[in-house]
């Protein structure tokens, strides 16, 4: 089960598409939209991350940064980011440690026995590192409610 609103967001350190280590603690003092996506180069994930990219100025105006996490390797995330012109970090959680820490593993993803990825989940984390909004889609084929997420960020 996903972490609840009011919970201190667990810190993590993951590699971005250039193998640079990125930690949640690097963003203290900023609001963070932490976006877990199941798999690069899938239709809904592409639509979702491009939606966040399209709203990047609006989010930056709300002192918010987007961090996207998947279980994909850094190389896949790098190609996905480049193909879609994404300017925010895509982080690789190939060990599933962060996905598990946030309570959003998707077991048997795409009906493949034993394949674990992440749920489609978004956590809005305030500047002090506290989770203020959680959205986990019941179906990974459905995009999150962006208006709800953006309103949560802008209310901080």
Q: How would you describe the overall organization of this protein?
A:
It is a single chain. The protein is of the alpha/beta class and 156 residues long. The protein has a single domain, classed as Glutaredoxin, CATH 3.40.30. The chain contains five helices and nine strands, in the order E-E-E-H-H-E-H-E-H-E-E-E-E-H. It has helices spanning 43-54, 56-61, 74-84, 97-101, 146-154; strands at 13-15, 21-23, 31-36, 64-70, 90-92, 105-107, 116-118, 121-125, 131-136. The strands form three sheets. The chain has a five-stranded mixed sheet with strand order 5-4-3-8-9. The protein is globular. 35% of the residues are buried.
Quick structural overview:
The protein is an alpha/beta fold and 156 residues long. The protein is built from five helices and nine strands. The protein has helices spanning 43-54, 56-61, 74-84, 97-101, 146-154; strands at residues 13-15, 21-23, 31-36, 64-70, 90-92, 105-107, 116-118, 121-125, 131-136.
